[in-house]
Each structure stands twice: as structure tokens, then as C-alpha cells.
Automatic annotation (TrEMBL):
Gene3D superfamilies named among the record's database cross-references: Phosphoglycerate kinase, N-terminal domain
Annotated GO CC locations: cytosol
Organism: Kyrpidia spormannii
Protein name per its UniProtKB record: Phosphoglycerate kinase
Upper taxonomic lineage: Bacteria, Bacillati, Bacillota, Bacilli, Bacillales
Main location: cytoplasm
Residue numbers binding (2R)-3-phosphoglycerate: R36, R118, R151
Biological process per Gene Ontology, one example term: gluconeogenesis
Chain positions recorded as ATP binding sites: K201, E324, G350, G351, D352, S353
Gene name as annotated: pgk
Coiled coil regions in record: none
Length: 399
């Protein structure tokens, strides 16, 4: 990686503002998936061991610049404290005198957690005044929030204008694993893409088509591709305005000789509900009116397994069906299991697919489960992530 990291700078005795992505699911005041908190521990522990004073900041949800009790970070502070096995001092303010006082009273190795940065309207507006106020608390800015690196906000990018800015260890790992897979993949290189919409992922499909040998498209987005191929899709979600894009993609794959696999069978339901009537149809048979495709079928699963069996690099992003409902989770579960059996590098690209793999207890069987949803998609598309672009180059730090 060409960006400087915490290993390239002196942290001893420094006040360090660390942007983390603690945007985690919370139910009844408890963190229900602490994956993102655990993923930030290496950076936090490295800084503690190095004798730094840590000011941690994160967003949670989308409270739109206002205090919203549902999105306070107290449950996160409790979980972080348990995981670290040392006190975490959580303040109820994002910026201002309470924060300044708490920061001033810190000793080496102390950990302070600010309130949800999105309670401040200046955060998402990337207001320099807010970034400057935070910069006044610290000597160094560390961005470890890969999951929010596609946002140009005050705490994810703006701060880098006012403090020396380096990557944390999670940020480094995410960027290294994802870029190595894209630039030097071991072949056969396969990708599995799913999720709700073609419009969200068409950029990723286009970029991956330039790189992979095999591509499976499943989930809701496959419906539009199947409709573009002329299959009847009944009441499935089809993006009519993306049919031409889908056709173009199919032509590109054919032109490049990339094996593009679409579902050959589907699990369909007579309504969008876990207790709907359901059955499996072949795509040639079509989806009857009033029915909708909610998962890939067993034969598609078999083809996916075969596609992955001897792959040396696999990237997966997006569920194969409405996996939140148990009757339509089989396709997603099967892909997760097939990924777990792959001998080479396996990367799960964040969001729902990462949540599915974690829920199935298969996260440890993957080479890398990204903590970024939107961020990993934008990275895979080849876009510049503002939170990364803002960091110092390693060359500049090493002189
Ligand atoms: N056949 C389908 N019909 C309708 N919805 C579907 C279908 N298959 C999957 N979905 C839904 O797609 C949603 C996930 O899509 P999304 O594009 O958000 O993927 P993601 O991997 O979570 O993306 P991100 O990484 O951006 O979070 C899930 O809620 C799932 O229920
Ligand atoms: O959950 C995520 O993908 C990140 O935390 C970014 O959240 P956002 O989409 O609300 O910016």
C-alpha cells in the first residue's frame, strides 16, 4: 500500500484522533454483531501499547445532523470496553467543552469515545470548522474506518487537512487484500454478485468483467438479466430501465470469453413473505404472473459450486436471495459454504454478504471479510475513496 500507516509514524505520548467505523447493528441497547468493533481492535491496541492517547470517533446510522437517542454510542462503548478489557470513557458530546476537557485529562493508553459524529450537521457537510475543532484535540489523525472511506465527511476526510493523516491497520488490510486480488489475482478468478439491484452494482459488474474468468450473477439483480434474455419474470423485481444495460453486459462478457452464469432455476413465491407458497421453476418455464423469484434454485447452486470448486481467487458481494427469510436463504448459504471450501483467496465484500457469512459462522473460513459495504463496492468499481485519498503517501512520511 502506498499510504502511510500508524507503523510509519511516532505515536508515543501523542494524542491521536482515530476515525473508526462502529456502525453496527444494535437491538435493545446491545450490539448484536460486533464484527466491526473487533476489526478495529488491532489499531486500538497498537496505539494503546505505543503509549498514545486515543480519541475514537464513529458514526452510527443516519441521524441527519441531529441528536437522535436511538443512535447514541453507549452500547458500542460498553462492548468496546468488554473487548478491550480496559475502561473506555464515553462522552455525550461530539465536539465542544465537554470533549476538550475529557481529552485534556487523558493519560497515555487512555481511550475516549466521542458521541455519534453524525449528530453534528457539519460532519456530512465536511465542514472545515468542525474538522478544525477536532484537529485542536490531537497531534495525529488515523483513519481506520474503511467502511466509511467512500464518504467525504469531516471525520473521514476533512480532518486530514489539519493534521498528519495515516491509515490504521484495518484500513491497510482492507486496501491491501482488495487491491492485490484485483491487480494480481491467481487464476481461475471467479466473482459472485448478488443483491437487490443492477443499478447499484453495474459499475462493479463492468469492472469485474475486465478481470475475472467466471462471473455468477444471482439475487434480485439476476431478474433484470433474465428478463433481458427474454425469460418471463412474473411479478419479480425487474428494473425495466436497465434491460439495455444488462444486454450490453451480456454482450461484453461474450466478447471477452468470460463465463457469465445466470440462474438456470429459481425459487419462486406467491408473495413477499416467509410463509408464502413456494416452488422451484426452471428459467425457460418462466415465473407465472403474481409469483416472484426470491432465491436461486438447487441446480444453479450446483453450477455455482462447480464454478468455485477449482477457483484460486473468489470475490463475493451480495446475497443470492432474500436471505433474511429462512425459506429463501438456501442459495446464499450454499454460496457461503462453497466459498469456505475454496483453496485459494476468498474475499467477501461487505454489507449483507458479510453479515450472512458471520451469521453462518463461516467468517473464519474466508481469507477476508470486508467491513465495508458501499466502500468495498466503490473500491471494486475502481473509484477513488475520499477517506483514502486524503491520507499521506508513505513516501512523504519516510522522506
Ligand atoms: N430475488 C430477490 N428479490 C428481491 N430482493 C432480493 C432478492 N435477492 C436478494 N434480495 C435482497 O437484496 C438485499 C441486499 O442487496 P444489496 O444490494 O443491499 O446487497 P449488499 O451486499 O448488502 O450491498 P452492500 O454491500 O452495498 O450493503 C437483501 O435485503 C435481499 O433480501
Ligand atoms: O455501513 C456502512 O456501509 C458504513 O458504515 C457507511 O454508512 P453510510 O452508508 O450510512 O454512510
Amino acid at each position: 500500500m502506498d499510504k502511510a500507516t500508524i507503523r510509519d509514524v511516532e505515536v508515543q505520548g501523542k494524542r491521536v484522533f482515530v476515525r473508526v467505523d462502529f456502525n453496527v447493528p444494535i437491538e435493545d441497547g446491545r450490539v448484536v454483531d460486533d464484527g466491526r468493533i473487533r476489526a478495529a481492535l488491532p489499531t486500538i491496541e497498537y496505539l494503546i501499547r505505543g503509549g498514545a492517547r486515543l480519541i475514537l470517533a464513529s458514526h452510527l446510522g443516519r441521524p441527519k445532523g441531529r441528536v437522535d437517542e436511538r443512535y447514541r454510542l453507549d452500547p458500542v462503548a460498553r462492548r468496546l470496553q468488554e473487548l478491550l478489557g480496559r475502561p473506555v470513557h464515553k462522552v455525550d458530546a461530539v465536539v465542544g467543552p465537554e470533549v476538550e476537557q475529557a481529552a485534556a485529562g487523558m493519560g497515555p493508553g487512555d481511550v475516549l469515545l466521542l458521541e455519534n459524529v453524525r449528530f453534528e450537521p457539519g460532519e456530512e457537510k465536511n465542514d472545515p470548522a468542525l474538522a478544525r475543532a477536532w484537529a485542536g484535540l490531537a497531534d495525529l489523525y488515523v483513519n481506520d474506518a474503511f467502511g466509511a472511506a467512500h464518504r467525504a465527511h469531516a471525520s473521514t476526510a476533512g480532518l486530514a487537512q489539519f493534521l498528519p493523516a495515516v491509515a490504521g491497520l484495518l484500513m491497510e488490510r482492507e486496501l491491501t487484500v482488495l487491491s492485490r486480488a484485483l491487480s494480481h489475482p491467481e487464476h481461475p478468478f471467479a466473482a459472485v454478485l448478488g443483491g437487490a439491484k443492477v443499478s447499484d452494482k453495474i459499475g462493479v459488474v463492468a469492472r469485474l468483467l475486465e478481470k475475472v474468468d467466471r462471473l455468477l450473477i444471482g439475487g434480485g439483480m439476476a431478474n433484470t438479466f433474465l428478463a433481458a434474455r427474454g425469460y418471463r419474470m412474473g411479478s419479480s423485481s425487474v428494473e425495466e430501465d436497465r434491460l439495455e444495460t444488462a444486454r450490453e453486459t451480456l454482450r461484453t462478457a461474450e466478447g471477452r470469453g468470460t463465463a457469465l452464469l445466470l440462474p438456470v432455476d429459481l425459487v419462486i413465491a406467491d408473495r413477499f413473505s416467509a410463509d408464502a407458497q413456494r416452488r422451484t421453476v426452471r428459467v425457460e418455464e418462466g415465473v407465472p404472473e403474481g409469483w416472484m423469484a426470491l432465491d436461486i434454485g438447487p441446480e444453479t447452486v450446483e453450477r455455482c459450486r462447480a464454478m468455485l470448486a477449482d477457483a484460486h481467487t473468489v470475490i463475493w458481494n451480495g446475497p443470492m436471495g432474500v436471505f433474511e427469510m429462512e425459506p429463501f436463504a438456501a442459495g446464499t448459504l450454499a454460496v457461503a459454504q462453497a466459498m469456505a471450501g475454496v483453496k485459494g483467496t476468498t474475499i467477501v465484500g461487505g454489507g449483507d454478504s458479510a453479515a450472512a457469512v458471520t451469521k453462518m459462522g463461516l467468517a473464519d473460513r474466508m481469507t477476508h471479510v470486508s467491513t465495508g459495504g458501499g466502500a468495498s463496492l466503490e473500491f471494486l468499481e475502481g473509484r477513488v475513496l475520499p477517506g483514502v485519498a486524503a491520507l499521506l503517501d508513505r513516501e512523504a512520511v519516510r522522506g
